[in-house]
Amino acid sequence: MAGRAPWEPVEQFEREAYSDYVKPHNVTTRYVYLRNHIMDGGNKMKNPFEFGRELGKSELADRESEVRSVLETMRDTGRLFLIGPRRFGKTSILRAATDQARSEGLLVLRYNAEAFPTLSGLASAIVEDAAKAIGGPVRRMDAPGRSEEALLAEALDGVNRLVSDSGRSISIVIDEFQQVVERGGVVAEAQVRAAIQQHEHVAYVFAGSKTKMLAEMTGNAARPFYRLGARLFIGPVPRTDFVPFIRSRFEAADFILGDEAIAAILDLSADVPYNVQRLAHSCWAAMRETGAREMTSSGVREIAEQLVGRDDPFYTQTWNRLTRPQQKALLALTSAGDAGLFSTKTLGKAGLPQSTMQTALAALEKTGVTRREEDRGAVQYVLEDPFLKVWLQLFVVRD
Ligand SMILES: Nc1ncnc2c1ncn2[C@@H]1O[C@H](COP(=O)(O)OP(=O)(O)OP(=O)(O)O)[C@@H](O)[C@H]1O
Ligand SMILES: [Mg+2]
To answer: Are 172 and 90 in a shared domain?
Structure first.
């Protein structure tokens, strides 16, 4: 790419990479905007790796089928549970599908249940927004004596009535849906279920990151939400999509990252999209800062160590809150991998009897340090934040 003349045609993926952060001043052109102008000595180009905010469709690696499933649920007024671990990109999928649905003229109301301290607050917002979107009367949702969960169910009933009167349909998307269940308990589940299963004009998409809890809620025949809707489990972005996504963004700035360096970004991040973007962001920033054109896998590791070094107070606090057996179980988990976690060798090295290891692992999962992945009958414990492993290797394990 070095030395390419301005206005020279570029590959499709490069055009897309540029279009993320360069306003196309002439949309009819098939050529990238004058390269030197964009770069301007390397200062004007925005870091192409973004983390900590929901991304739009054009900014995502992969996720086409997930976005399509959400979109189809909206079009067909269906019901879908989107379930996945933290920071895997659930909200971004919801955002991409919402944008697309709205561009097709569909009405979509999207909420993050965590942002509402009470269920009645969420219920009021839904009712007000629906009335605004459809143009109907706004009902107050603070009826005294009504329980929080009854108000939410009533709010949803009200929205269904409003849309059916208007001859339209609407989609209600509730992110971090586990909050609703945590706050309202099984009573909320039962009331919300009773309401929404009668709604023909409202699509529901519920997303959440308490994978175990949501899987149980929707997959246990004894629970009200059993088979209430389709379930979509969000996995990692496949490397066949993530590798070109990362490479094209480095190449757009004339930075070279070989296959091993890109694999190091993904390995250190355990393929968690948030961590991948955060580490790639820091690598990109370091290259721009130092003027280096190339980074190797050991360079990537150094950047990861700098990152956890900066977050050291946070990791130290996490570590110090753990009991001694939990610390040992965590170290065993990061060094033995999970396959041999209960092997005599690992237990011996950790100095833990099997039952203590089990209790410690359960506690680590409960406090959100680890999560359990169940895949084809096998159970794996993984770190919720993959950078914790880098921190442990750097500051705790010295053998
Ligand atoms: N498909 C993707 N391609 C590239 N980066 C992604 C993708 N999905 C997520 N990310 C990265 O992860 C970050 C977090 O994404 P998002 O907020 O959508 O995840 P989430 O699962 O909703 O997280 P949380 O559990 O914290 O709510 C994004 O800001 C982005 O950096
Ligand atoms: Mg989210």
So the answer is: yes
